[in-house]
Structures are given as structure tokens and as C-alpha cells.
Amino acid sequence: MPAYTVPVPRYWRRIGTYYRLEASRCRNCGRVYYPPRMRCVCGCKDMEKIRLLGGKFQLIDFTVLHSVSEDFEKQKPIFVGIVEESSTNVRIITQIVDVADVSDLEKSREVEPVFRVVKRDGNVGIICYGTKFRPKIVG
Amino acid sequence: MAGISGWGCYIPRYRITTREIARVWGDDPLRIRDLYLIEEKTVESYDEDATTMAVEAARRAIARSAIDPEDLDAILVGTESKPYAVKPIASILIDAVGARYNIQAVDSEFACKAASDMMILALMSVINGRYRNVLVVATDASQGEPGEHLDYSASAGSAAFVISRDNTCVEVEDFYSYCSDTPDFWRRECCPYPAHGEGFTGEPAYFRHIVSAARGLMEKMGLRPDDFDYVVLHQPNARFPVRAASMLGFPIDKVKPGLVVDRIGNTYNASALLGLVNVLDQARPGSRILLVTYGSGAGSNAMSMIVKDSVEERRGRAERLQDMLETKIYVDYSLYSRFRKLIKMLQ
Fold it and tell me: Is B209 a catalytic residue?
């Protein structure tokens, strides 16, 4: 058997989080967690599942990485940003893609989620998909 | 009759010009442009593939349809560039769009025509009442051998349609298929690039099947080219569909709105269907559309559609193809090679 580096069950369990940006909200105090948590800091365990995917997102800040981990070597330099969902104020650290120039990110802070490949596990392992963000077309 | 309740598309933002490809391979750019009438084509980014584009197009089609994804009864995909040899795109779509798990989901292959076959199967399943809503996705990120004819046209894109029994904005009046064993284009197992029969791809393949399917449908329905407002044909380059439309007796004005290959290249399964998306983004209610797809190997599906009043209220629910065409980032052949993984490491 070839050696895989991605533990398939762990990726599979997180598909909702990766694909649909599923978060959890505390029914007691209203705090929202992404990635989702089973228990709130207020002590409540009554959490409901919510989906951030259809929301509006703003880029809070970003950086450009020229030194990256092996999975992203073929994509460097990569943009990594903090993105905030407007209705829940949830912040996500994510890769920002389709950036023609750094000035694009300075001009408009509106970004949109896009479904992308996050990691290809060598030539034989699974392809891990997930959500990244990119500058939104403002028209 | 049943029809389309939502449509959507996705094309990558990256583009490469025909001129740039010709520069690298020592071809005369004017001759190449004259040959294919393609100005530029889309290039998938390093982290894009047929699956990622399918998800984006599907989400837009569902948004236009305004159905709950849980109301989908089947997800059918047409592609010839699956990222996995074994493992479907359709099952990834279930989780990416938030559909139910107790539905039918499958990928199909017939070169560039599989997605239109899935549209016909979806139509038949909603007409007979078995299903209410079926998501059909055409997606491809196809490869051409570097420096060869296909390098100038093979591109990436996706189109998606929700085929429904009720709540439709486009009614499909009728359809007609024409198929034969015509080996004009193929790819053997484990070959990275397809092979094609050069001039053989024209008369006995593309033109024969497209024209036969279109004429067959018009005869069956008792319609003439005058009865249609738009004609959308499979577009491996811009010359073929213009000539086929002329052979069928359609004026160029009825072809142009559905012609997008000159700006995005040949998106294979999504080729004619992105043309249809562009028409739906602008067509007036009451317009009649003739759609004819083509897949090598070879066959064509022709469909006649009527645009309904509700098409207008649905346009604003997702990005138009025109918006995506205008948002682009040009790359040179070096970046193109990196994005398309054409640079192979020796170890």
C-alpha cells in the first residue's frame, strides 16, 4: 500500500466545516464558533449548527508568505488573510486566492468564498477540498 | 413540459492570450487567430479543477432556482476531466451544495456531450414525475498537448442547470439526438493528452452530427430557422459554430449572443452550455433557443427551449457570465505551465 499523509477519517468528519463553512452557535449566550465547538465558554453544551457560506465577508488584514509549507510550495507566494463574516463577526484565517496584485486587496476589502483544492495527497492519496476566499467582483 | 428553473456558471479568472501561446511555440499569431478565432482562453488556477468549478456553478444555479438544495432528487455530472479516475464529482457536490444523501448521483462521460445527455435524462425523469428537481453540471478542465492545436483552445469552465418539473423559467419543448461511431477525437487510458483526427474532426464529425441533430429536431417539431431567436452550438473554436449555423440557414445575429469561445476557449462539456448561459443572461421572455451540443466519438443533442417571463427576476440572483468575462488576470506561458502542472519534476 502506498503511504498517505492525510488521515481520511479526520478530513471526512470535517467536510461540513471545510465545504459549507458550518459553525456552531451557543443557544444560551449566542457565541458563534468556527470551526464548530461542542461546548461554549459559558459552559453551555446546547449548540446549534449554522452555515456561514451565504454570508457577507470582509477582509480584516492579510500578509504575503514567500516561505510556505510543502503543500503550498507550488503556489507561492500565497496570501493569507483574516476574514470576518458580517452577521456573526466570526473571523476565519484563510488563504486569499485570485489576487492579481497586492493593491487589489488594499482597494476593496470585500471578499467571497470559493471552493478550492486545499491539498493533494501526493499522486495516490485523496484530494482535499475546502473553502478559500478571493476579492469579490464589485459591479 | 419541464425545463430549467435555475442556471449558473463559473470560469476561472486567469487568462492566456492566443498571441502568448503562439509566441512560445513559434507560430504566427495572426494565422493562429484566423484559424480558431480565439483571442484568449481561461486557465484554471493551481488549486482549481473540474470539481471546484462544478461546485461554484452548481451553487449559482441553485441560487437562481431558489430551491432548497434538500429538494434536489438527483445530481448528474458530465465531464471528461475528472480529478479522480475512480471517485465521482457528483458525490462531492452533494456535500458541497448541502443536498440530501438519499438521492441519485453519478458522473457520465461522452466527450463534450455527456452533460447535455444528463439534461435530457433529467428532463425525462421530471416529466415522468419520478423526480421534481435534478441538478445537472457540465464541467471540464481539459488538457491539450503543449504546442499542439488543442493548446490554443482547451480551457476550463463549468455550467450548471436545475432541471425542474415546476417553477421553471425556461421550458424545454423537445429534444433530438444523433450519434454514430466516428473516431474524430479520443484519449486512451493513461494518456495525458487526447489525440484527434485533424481534418477528420470537421465534416464527418462535428458538422454531420450538429447539422443532422438540428435538422432532425426542426423537422420533428415542424419549425424553421426563422422560428428561433437564438442558436447556440458546441464551440471548439469560433469558426465551426458560425459555419454550421450558416449551413442550417441561421443568420450570424442569432449566433453571436451564444458564442463565448473567442473569450474563454473550448470548455468541452460546458462549451455550448456556457453559450446557453450567456443567452439566458440576456434573452427576452418569449424567445426560442436552439441548443445543439456535440461530443466526439461522436454525437449531438439538439434541444428547443422557450424563455419564460420569470427568467428576468432570476438573473440578478447570481453573477452573470459577462461579469466573469470582464474580471480577468492575464498570465504568461510560464505561469500557465505552472498552473496546469505541465512542469514535471524528475524526482
Answer: no
